[in-house]
Structures are given as structure tokens and as C-alpha cells.
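User: Sequence in, structure out. Go.
Assistant: Echoing your sequence, followed by the C-alpha cells.
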Amino acid sequence: MRALLSMLLLVVSLPLLAAPKLDRLTLPPGFHIAVFSDQVPNAREIALGANGTVFVGSSGAGKVYALTDANDDGVADKVRVVASGLRNPIGVAFHDGDLYVSAISRIVVLRDIEQHLDAPPKPELVTDKLPTKGHHGGRFLAFGPDGKLYVPIGAPCNICDPGPDYAKLMRMNADGSEWQDVATGIRNSVGFDWQPGSGRLWFTDNGRDMLGDDVPSDELNEITRLGQNFGYPHCHQGDVADPEFGAGHPCSQYVPPVLKLGAHVAALGMRFYTGKQFPASYHGAILIAEHGSWNRTEKSGYRVMTVRLDGSKVLSYEPLITGFQQNESAWGRPVDVQPMPDGSVLVSDDLAGAVYRVTYKP
């Protein structure tokens, strides 16, 4: 009886996850999707270590995970917790052997992490000077080609004029010094990457809520020079003046999006596909994880999309994975996409607590 009671307590203590329903997913012909791991509660941003470790940030429980696939069979055979007790550590970035983790007002680093997966080092503080507000306070992280750490600071509201400390993308040195604003007028970006060839920074941005089902759209943007302003809170999607903050601030003053992604799709993680496994039409394309709407009459998003480009010109915007929700009921919510060295792509899902692996074989 005591053993049975212990087992029941263990079951109760485990996180309640929506089991992945891969049979409900639809991908283009030749593409396949499988579970890389279904033991990553609240899985958010994905980062790759130099030795093949897959690091995953999370929301909720404050943990950071390390996934390893020792036999290279495309399935993680071990999931470790390398940090815990952090405040909403959704962002992870690997740089020079170290893992950087966002935690709202703080960024911490785990030194030489891949050599200490079984006995992780204590996180060291990089900075604790970021805003403390939790609304849009989860931060995607990435190191740029310049070696600097890029950090978004979302608006602490649905719609407001938050002043110069918010609604922007900034960068700093790896040691937390020399902050610099990169772009402003950004409501909440949770995904960005640098285009191969041009080296320009592209990012997704979530549009405001409470203007209806179909306005404004989430955005895909390109930064062509330092200091550009993308409109928030005065202008949305490049051509919609905010009813409260738009007066006296015409949309022509701001940089319009390269592509309108759709209203309330919650476009989050995005990466350029640089692998060779997918067909040639995917080479250099952008993959975007759309987390899905929360307040739209009919759900939108809940998918992974492909944006094909010719330089800065959009050629197409098409689904790569759909089926995370049926009949207005969602079992999965994509968060991030991460191309792998072998050309496959990992997709994180915070609702199912899983990371999937997408491959192509005609």
C-alpha cells in the first residue's frame, strides 16, 4: 500500500502535458515529423551547443533543459535540468562554450556547460539591469555575427507609450557591458535571425490586441540600418494608426513590415534555413513558429510557416506544419524552430512539452 501511495504521489507531481498527436499534423510531401523528446515541460527557445547538445529554455517552472542524442538516432536519449529556480527563462543562447539564459531582469551564464551537464555550474550574473516587469518580459536571446548578445525588451502592456526603456531591440557585449539600441517601435519580438549573405537582422513582432479579429497583423521585419523605428505604439502593421496613440504620428514616419503574417497568429521563433536536407526551394527561406491566438473568435496560427525570399522580396508564405489545433481545440503550440547540422529542423512546443524533429526524404 505504501509503495502504491508513493507511485500515486509521483504521478501527481509530474507536469500535466498534452500528449503529442503527430498523426494530426500535415506537412508537404516528403517531409516527416517525429518526437525528439516529450519530456520538456513548457519548452521555449532552442539553442545548439558545439558538441551537439540541444538546450531548451522554458516558462513556468523556471528550468533550463539539456537534451542529448548519444547514438545519433534522432531521438534524445537523455534530458537533464541544467538550471532551475529562474524567472521565466525562455531564452537560451550558446556562445564560446557558455550558455546564456534570460530571466526577465537578469541574464545569467553557465560556463563551459557541455563539459558539466551532469553537474552543472552555478549560473553567473551577466546583468541584472533589464526591466523587471513580467508583461512581455520573457526574452529570446541570440548572439549576432558581431559577437554581441541581442536582447529584446517588449512593451510592458498591450498598448501604451512605455518610453525609451521598452519596445525595442538592444545589444550588449557578452560580459553585459556597452548597451546599444538596435531598433525601436517593436511591441514584442520573440524571434530574430541574421540573413545569410546580406547579414541583415530579421525579426518577428506581435501586433496589439483588442482591435478586432483581423487587425492588426503580426509582422516580419528587416533592419536595414541601426536606429530604425517600426511604429509601436503609434502605427501597426505599417498602415494602421492606433486609435489612442496614432494622432500626429503618421505611419509614413515608420518602417513598414516586409510581410504581414496575419492577425493574432503570435509569431515567435524564426530562423533562416541554412541546411541542405530540405528541397532547394527552402534554402535561405525563413521558418516561423506561430504560437497561436488566445483572443480571436476563430483561432489563428498554431502552425509553422515558410517564407521564401529573393533578397528582401517575399516570394511566398506557405505552411510547413499545420494541425496543432482542430475544431478550435489546440493540443500543441509551436514556439521555436532550430535548423540542425544534418539539415533537419527542431520545433519546440510548450503546450505538449515536447521538441519535434522534422526531416525530409522524398
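User: And one key feature?
Assistant: Residues 1-15 have pLDDT under 50 and may be disordered.
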